Amino acid sequence: MSTTTPAPPAAGGHLSAGAGVFAELVGQSAVVEQLRTAVASGAPTHAWLFTGPPGSGRSNAARAFAAALNCDQGGCGACQSCRMVAAGAHPAVQLVSTENVSYRIDDVRELITTAQDRPQGFRWRVIVMEDADRMTERATNVLLKSIEEPPPQTIWVLCAPSPADVLVTIRSRCRAVSLRIPPTEEVARLLAERDGLSAQEAEFSARISQNHIGVARRLASDPQARQRREQTVSLPLKVRSASGAVLAAAELVTMAQADAESESSARLEQEQAALRRSLGLEPEEKVPAKLRTQFKRLEDEATRRAKRAVTDSLDRTLIDLTAVYRDVLSIKLGTGAPLINQHLASQLAELAETLSPEQSLACLDALSTARIRITQNVPPALAIEALMMQLIPRTRRG
After folding, report:
1. Quick one: DSSP state of residue 102?
2. Measured between alpha carbons, how far is 170 from 141 in angstroms, rounded to an integer?
3. CA 161, CA 354: separation in Å to the nearest integer?
4. Residue 134: how many CB atoms within 10 A of its CB?
5. What pLDDT does residue 126 have?
6. pLDDT band at residue 235, thresholds of 50, 70 and 90?
7. pLDDT digits over 280-325, tens only?
8. How far is CA 357 from the centre of its chain?
9. Is 204 exposed, middle or buried (0-12, 13-18, 19+ CB in 10 A)?
10. Per residue, what are the HEC states of 245-259?
11. What is the DSSP string of 266-302?
């Protein structure tokens, strides 16, 4: 288990200050209204379940809610309390995730002990538990009583992909917050306003990220990340033999490892910069001895999450490849739907000529299977090799 730290907003944007901590919840007006109403009530429900698919912003929403609960202005985003939550350094807000396959029972017991502490100097002690779907049934049962009867000033916020991923005994005791993938135009608008991108750059990044705000921002700001993605989505367009499939698999794994290393390094730098700001330290100022343990903790967490970062990067790679075959199937069926990889339209049309609709669906099934395998300790090279073999066009079909 580890404490997580959200990346700070990129400089140069010009969203109105009034948007506050909920600024990134684009296309989620009903959710924002629900959370603002709960904060304004002064007596919010003591257990919440935030659900939504990857890219919906469920973790960002949970953190924003935690910040708003302890902000005198309901989530201004500028006060010291809001800044400390953004930096992962708020004394009354615990942001936790696990780098393991599941939460250990000891992890959950430690959180329950933390929940008993009064939020000294703040309204609420908030425990944001990401990946709540990674709790085993035994760990869930340990948490149940604290969810049922929390201390008066403690609020639990659990995050999971869907309500079905959490045992009914937990979700029946939580207030539900359901998020959706935001529309492309809303993500593009956020990127243009906050990150200073041109309308064309923002739309392109939003579309190829499939409306995942964090991924879109990184693709827009990191040329190497864009290049790696282009290499990824181009590979299946070229694979025509078993030897080519093996070479393509090795290239994909290498790129995923490089992408994970780049993302981890960038995240650590952002976390360290955010922690410096929250502690009032200048960028080049020497860290006082009494504060070094906080920076050491960030470095240790970065090391622990390195393995999972590779798995996450591979999963993102497979999501990008899934978009390729969805585009191919769309072309094959003549749906007229906008292509995610519109800039590769001619190559996609060429691939569509070699695949039947059934073969395109089989490729999508193979990608889904590969995504499951990489989370089940199958060596990445083997899982991706098996996948690339299945993506070889077998016959030419009109």
Report:
1. S
2. 9
3. 35
4. 16
5. 96
6. confident
7. 888 888 888 888 888 888 887 777 677 777 888 899 899 999 999 9
8. 31
9. buried
10. HHHHHHHHHHHHHHH
11. HHHHHHHHHHHHHHT--TTSPPPGGGHHHHHHHHHHH
What are the pLDDT digits (tens) for 111-164? 999 999 889 889 999 999 998 998 988 899 999 988 888 888 999 999 999 999
DSSP 164-207: GGS-HHHHTTSEEEE--PPPHHHHHHHHHHHH---HHHHHHHHH
Query: Do the Cβ atoms of 57 and 179 come closer than 8 Å?
Result: yes
Across the range 323-347, mean pLDDT stands at: 94
Beta bridge partners of 155: 126
What does DSSP say about strands 154-160 and 125-129: parallel, antiparallel, or unpaired?
parallel
Q: Which two tokens stand for residue 336?
A: 């007229």
Concatenated DSSP letters for 121-164?
TSS-EEEEETTGGGB-HHHHHHHHHHHHS--TTEEEEEEES-GG
156 forms beta bridges with 47, 127
Residue 271 Cα distances to 23, 324, 356, angstroms? 20, 33, 47
Q: Residues in the chain, how many?
A: 398
In this structure, the dihedral spanned by the alpha carbons of residues 376, 140, 54 and 162, taken in order and rounded to 10 degrees, is 110
| Tens-digit pLDDT profile for residues 155-197 | 999 999 999 999 999 999 999 999 999 999 999 999 998 888 8
273 vs 171: CA distance, rounded Å: 36
CA distance linking residue 140 with residue 158, whole number of Å = 12
3-state secondary structure 341-357: CHHHHHHHHHHHHHCCH
User: What distance in Å separates the CA atoms of residue 138 and residue 144, rounded to the nearest whole number?
Assistant: 10
The DSSP string of 1-21 is -EE--PPPPPTT----GGGGG
Q: With contact defined as beta carbons under 8 Å apart, do 220 and 202 qualify?
A: yes
First-residue to last-residue Cα distance in the chain: 52
